[in-house]
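User: Can you help me understand a structure? I only have the sequence.
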Amino acid sequence: MPPSIELCTIPQMERHLERAVTALKSLQRADGHWCAELEGDSILQSEYLLMKWILGQEREPLVDGRPAKTLLRLLAYLRTQQREDGGWGPYPGSSSDVSASVKAYFALKLFGDSPDAPHMKKARAVIRHLGGAERCNSFTNFFLAGLGQISWNAVPTIPPEIMFLPKWCYFHLDKVSAWSRAMIVPLTIVSSKRHTREVPSDLGIGELFVDQDARHLLKATNAAPRGWKRFFLAVDGALKKLHNAGGTPWRQEAIHRAFEWIETRAGQDGAAATDGVAAIFPSMVYWQIVLHALGYERTHPLVMRAERELDAFFVTLGHGEDAPIRVQPCFSPVWDTGIALYALADCGITVSDDSAARAAQWLVSKECTFAGEWQRNLDVPTAPSGWYFEYANAHYPDSDDTAMVAMALIRIAPNDDASPIHAAAKRGVRWMMAMQNDDGGWAAFDRTQHRSVLDYVPFADHNAMQDPSCPDITGRVLECLAWHGYTTEHAAVRAGIAFIRARQEHEGCWFGRWGVNYIYGTWQAVIGPIRCGVSRDEAWIQRAGAWIKSIQKADGSFGESADSYDDPSLKGVGPSTASQTAWAAMVLQEIYGVDDLSLIRAIEWLCATQLDTQSAADPLSNPDGDPAGSWCETEFTGTGFPKVFYLRYHLYRLYFPTMALGRYLAAHGRGLRGVRLFDKGERAALGL
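Assistant: Let's start by predicting it. Here is the structure, written out as tokens:
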């Protein structure tokens, strides 16, 4: 339980901020960047283990020489993720998910867990209660078919001939999300080759299917209208008949083109360097399966590199050769460093501080100078720039990271327009402006428009086939533009504000595409417009503030579970977290000013729950072993694919509260010891 909340004086808050900044700096890497663990759910462990079986590597050492028993350490962690009801789900506290549960059960059984063991009986019961393994989503079915548990007829057909579709075609690859492209193209080869490893019958999972007849039939598991479901099932049936007849005359050329597409996005050369296909777990797994299906030996350089890049995602929990291991979905260094630097800027820190200077230099070195797929959707050619999320992912810079980095860089080098730091930030803004969509908003990776039919194809059940404009990214872009001198006088700003206003929920909040959920969306949607010049007194802004106040808890904190994605009546409802309390506090300060009582209560909660030396040493208070000055937060407050995949950013619990405390104290003209106080002009620029 958190300590009782007591009134906290400004000098005491300064000491809390000092501890937070010290903790944040202590986690910085030697070259200037931050990169904390990015934690996902059980499917990362189970899919990795199922992949090893498909590849026939379940008893072989890893590419770096670690013994085969390393896989048992992933199994050990997978067992800890099982719920009390016997299933597995996308985040702590969620309902059990049939696809996640089937994959976990199958992985455990393949590696020796007896189906008669109590935990396996419980898993089997919950899977059958949820409708059985025949209810799994399409991406799970690729693994089940690859191990002979279902017919390939039950898997959506993704023909490699899509590589030949003309640009004007509704289903052209450029019109789906960047992450979907990176998964779909490898799956075109998997779908056409249908490589299958038959496992012994006693290791199969026939017991998980309620309807054995439905086991081998394709089912539309997304929310497509009935007519569209029938249409796409008929198309899939026709494609399967075509496959059985040997495919089109261009099948081999299509496979060759798909292979080249993937290999290019797994490159490591120069400006186009990428650490794995799109630098994300799913496409990197499918790439290994593609290489295996096409007959590449494990000693081939492409295979060895693919294995090394994926195995780099391992995180060892504890010490010793038997310590459990979990798998990250990717790395988040640019994101972590951009936000950490922005938080330091909110504390009054500039490049005169060594920590900020090193972070800025590292970010400048990560500017993307490669013209990737994003250029194909632009109306006017634009020089490459921007930032991606990972260490190297040159094909996929994104507007969210670019906005965060560009405003962090401009802030920590004030009054230095000629510096390389400012120059990089300005190039990023120029690139970002070219990415604005026709609806006025910004998406993540591409300049796009919404195409509803794309969400109806059978393999669109990951709920992220598209990358449309969203209020949270649009709000962050506007916040960035404000720091670069843009106001409501600019047409792009006005269009962005109009987009945000049009998507406000009737309660006054906004949906959060990339963070959980309505607290995150509202935080992002409100601050950017205000910084660009929208009056805090406008009715829609006041409605947002009223909603934030309405969900504050009695102790001053805020929290929201990812349950709100499935049940919107749970908007703003969930366990208290440091990151979400910080987001809400920044909204309150932006709208109501520094003397608002709700804001003060939120700041005092952050101070009261900060880890001190004693609580940091207590495993119960600090299960992640964070330094004193941080906060404990075990909840998932990041979003990958709404309703499907969620994330726990291990630095959210530190740099966002630091940001909120820094802004609050800056409004009082106060801050860190050894850092000059904010003058009147700077406070006005902060909107304080």
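Now, to help you interpret it: The domain at 157-204+218-295 is CATH 1.50.10.20 (Glycosyltransferase). The radius of gyration is 25 Å. Let me know which part you'd like to focus on.
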